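Postdoc handover notes: sequence design on the structure in folder B. Input tokens:
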């Protein structure tokens, strides 16, 4: 497998990078498009872009609580039954969820986006999740995330 580098810029101007899986060797145009797509985006986003969501998933994969929580609205909601309380509110709640998750589980999680559907400020993402626990057991399973944006921030995930 090959990887395409992608970059993103959060609303506060901080940049981050992720590696997107690619099953065929990417050509230079593909890499250029991936690395410029999110970085050149206006911070007042009106719609959801696949590259933006993939960058957020990359921050989840890297366990970067700061970058993930920074994209949530003050009244945003993060819902995931795999997390200890299942529902978290605002950037501080999302950060707490990710911290508690990393305390309880160790290992790696990787997401491969299979399908992406966007309609204005809402989207659905079908991913193949790959988890490797510290004792090296591996699991792969499909998941679907539904995301709603409001004023350039995540209102619901």
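Designed sequence:
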């Amino acid at each position: 497998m090959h990887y395409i580098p992608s970059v993103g810029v959060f609303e506060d101007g901080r940049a981050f990078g992720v590696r997107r899986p690619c099953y065929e060797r990417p050509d230079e145009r593909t890499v250029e498009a991936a690395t410029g797509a999110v970085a050149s985006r206006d911070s007042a986003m009106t719609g959801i872009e696949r590259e933006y969501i993939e960058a957020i998933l990359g921050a989840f994969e890297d366990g970067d609580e700061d970058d993930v929580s920074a994209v949530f609205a003050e009244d945003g909601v993060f819902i995931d039954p795999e997390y200890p309380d299942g529902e978290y509110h605002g950037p501080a709640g999302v950060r707490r969820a990710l911290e508690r998750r990393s305390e309880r589980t160790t290992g790696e999680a990787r997401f491969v986006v299979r399908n992406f559907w966007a309609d204005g400020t809402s989207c659905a993402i079908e991913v193949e999740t790959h988890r490797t626990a510290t004792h090296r057991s591996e699991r792969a399973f499909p998941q679907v995330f539904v995301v709603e944006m409001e004023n350039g921030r995540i209102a619901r995930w």
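Context for whoever picks this up: Confidence is low (pLDDT under 50) at residues 1-5, 23-45. Don't rerun without checking with the PI first.
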